[in-house]
Amino acid sequence: MSPRIVVTAAGVISPIGAGLEKFGCALFSGRRAGAPSDRFPGITVAEIADFRPEVWLGNKGIRVLDRSARLLSVAAHMALSASGLSQEAAEVSDPQLGLVCGTVFGSVHSITAFDWSGLVDGPAWVNPMEFPNTVINAPAGQAAIKHRLRGLNSTVCAGLASGLHAIQYAADALRFGRARALLAGGVEELCEESVLGLRKTGATSASGNARPFSEERDGVVPGEGSALWMLETQESAEARGRAPWLEICGFGSTQAAHSINSFDPRGNGAAEAMEQALAESGIGPGGVSCIVASASGSRAGDEMEIRAIERVFGSRLADIPVCAPKASFGEAMGASGALCALTAGLALQEQSLPPTHGFSQTSTPISGEYALVNAFGCDGNNASLVIRLWKN
């Protein structure tokens, strides 16, 4: 029998709060991030203002880390500390403890700055200390070095579905016995390159106000952050005396292959991803107590997801609460799936779904054990995850 994969801890840093408690309080109070930024004039972003990683990491060794690596390292520190698996005091670090990180761009600003320096100033003048940050898996590698994670280390790039794919990749690795415990989730930083890319494709909100599912929605508010779960097998958690919080039950993924930067309006790929996740979980649409949507305020993306959800759930949808937390923390790209999964975990724990600005004003009571989490991208990558509040 395949081992049950459980969540025993989490770490999160986001524009609405750092740490699980502050993140949850902000979600359920309806707080929204998003303001004009000195770093990115003329656009509203959901930025982690006054980010000071030394509060969690200390001063040693962080100077060489770029923003993505710092965000991921902070989330890793939180999850490791909460799970009791921190390696700081260990004489020999655990070779079965690792990290799987989802991201869209990784350290794209570091890559661009390094290449630009070489082109403008010449190869002899580039800073060699910046070279380790010029690969997309640099944040995962740097976080592993910082926290002495000697086990499996992987970076997953699957567009806006990257965070959910990373969780599933880690869950499979644990089922196959490739690790004893794995941090899994995503990271993304706001930088000139990513913000400019979103603006040039017309994805950003002209009003600076993300309103998922609203008739007045006009685009996304770019965000950033990192969220990680500590995943283990049930056997590993119980051997350590740790009570599981959640269980990973089912996953589905498709590639709609419609266009490189536009959503498939029919929503067939998104619907199939949800159907796969439900089937693997052994539950039907009637078993889902809430849906945490991928909707971000994109006119085309939200409409596609609505169509896909209606296809899967039909008349049952009227009885299933839905929320879109990107209204709170923005479109954090590779980190969004992990942030949405964390939202779903908190919703199951509280038996209440956070409000969605422009769509619902108050938290909605829920009743049940299962939540469905979606992460759908304009590049055709679609992923859905079913999680369950832990019960033996």
Outline the fold blueprint.
Layout: E1 5-14, E2 17-18, H1 20-29, E3 35-36, E4 44-45, H2 54-57, H3 67-83, E5 97-102, H4 108-121, H5 138-147, E6 153-156, H6 162-175, E7 181-188, H7 192-200, E8 225-233, H8 234-239, E9 246-255, H9 268-281, E10 288-292, H10 299-313, E11 322-323, H11 326-329, H12 336-350, E12 352-353, E13 364-365, E14 370-376, E15 381-389
Parallel strand pairs: 5-6, 5-7, 10-11, 10-14
Antiparallel strand pairs: 1-2, 1-8, 1-9, 3-4, 7-8, 9-15, 12-13, 14-15
Helix pairs in contact: 3-5, 6-12, 9-10
Percent helix range: 25-40%
* Number of β-strand runs: 15
| Main pleated sheet | 11 strands, mixed
Head-to-tail CA distance between termini: 15 Å
Give the helix tally: 12
CATH superfamily of the largest domain: Thiolase/Chalcone synthase
What does this structure look like?
It is a single chain. With 392 residues, the chain is an alpha/beta fold. The chain is 34% helix and 20% strand. It is built from twelve helices and 15 strands. It has helices at residues 20-29, 54-57, 67-83, 108-121, 138-147, 162-175, 192-200, 234-239, 268-281, 299-313, 326-329, 336-350; strands at residues 5-14, 17-18, 35-36, 44-45, 97-102, 153-156, 181-188, 225-233, 246-255, 288-292, 322-323, 352-353, 364-365, 370-376, 381-389. Strands 1, 2, 5, 6, 7, 8, 9, 10, 11, 14 and 15 form an eleven-stranded mixed β-sheet that branches. A two-stranded antiparallel sheet has the order 3-4. A two-stranded antiparallel ribbon has the order 12-13. It is globular. It starts with a strand and ends with a strand.
